[in-house]
């Protein structure tokens, strides 16, 4: 297992260099000048303009900028925002906890509702519960996330507020308090972010459980007199969960990279919203810094997903030259 983890960590190195190199190269071909964007309509003398370009390293070739960035990154320095003049470390430290909070809340919904609905649909195959699950997941998959978020804002923030004289409604924008927000502000963004993924998780869980139930060892377990719940819990569920765990793990990595649409609709101050605003302002240090943090988070989650396979299926073993790879 340790050898496998070591090899996976080594595989992260080319991924990191590939992503960051592509990102730096793209900035060289994009139109616009971040220094002029910072000045806005204010006039800027040529001397000040050249000094700012020198301070941010824009007067050097892109590969030299990339080397300088790696050197600073090795010391934990993500640079300084062009728009605000604040350290990027501080900006990310303020915004990323909101994304983590939103992502884990959405994943909890996805696991409880998605996996639960998928199990019920498989166990009650062709029943009214199965039909309702199939219909509801089909609708959720077809709905655009931003449209669903706007509808939830209208229903729970405007319509119910007026219908109940303000006694029952949910916050529709922003996050309350410092650091982690209150539970009420989290509900609608988490439901919106989890909606499509929950539908896919339910479908995958249903199809995998039906496939596993047709295996010989499941029929043998039934023939030995085990109860249906015992067969489901001890034999079928673990093997059926492997593709679901893969999907949920990758989905968590995607959520930790910042749900731009959801965070924008709900004005949620997460990393996705921060990177999107920085991109529009050509604030490259914030874009680079946010991307690096997101990249490390996604690679770490993918590693945890791979390790979880060995605990779900005893046949999978990680080691030198084993079939588990």
Task: List the keywords.
325 residues, mainly alpha, MetI-like fold, 13 helices, flat, disordered C terminus
Explain what this protein looks like in three dimensions:
- The chain has 325 residues and is mainly alpha-helical.
- It folds into 2 domains: 73 residues, no CATH class; 222 residues, MetI-like (MetI-like fold, Orthogonal Bundle).
- It is 74% helix and 0% strand.
- It has 13 helices and no strands.
- Helix 1 packs antiparallel against helix 13, helix 8 packs across helix 10 and helix 9 packs antiparallel against helix 10.
- The longest helix has 36 residues.
- The termini are close together.
- The relative contact order is 0.14.
- The C terminus is likely disordered.
Short summary:
By secondary structure, the chain is mainly alpha-helical. It has two domains: 2-74, no CATH class; 91-312, MetI-like fold. Helix content is 74%, strand content 0%.
Rounded average pLDDT? 81
* Number of structurally distinct domains: 2
| CATH topology assignment of the largest domain | MetI-like fold
Give the CATH architecture of the largest domain: Orthogonal Bundle
**Any low-confidence stretches, pLDDT <50, length ≥5?**
320-325
Assign the CATH class of the largest domain.
Mainly Alpha
Counting helices, strands and paired strands, the structural category is mainly alpha
Assigned CATH superfamily of the largest domain = MetI-like
Largest sheet data: none
Instruction: Provide the gyration radius in Å.
Output: 24 Å
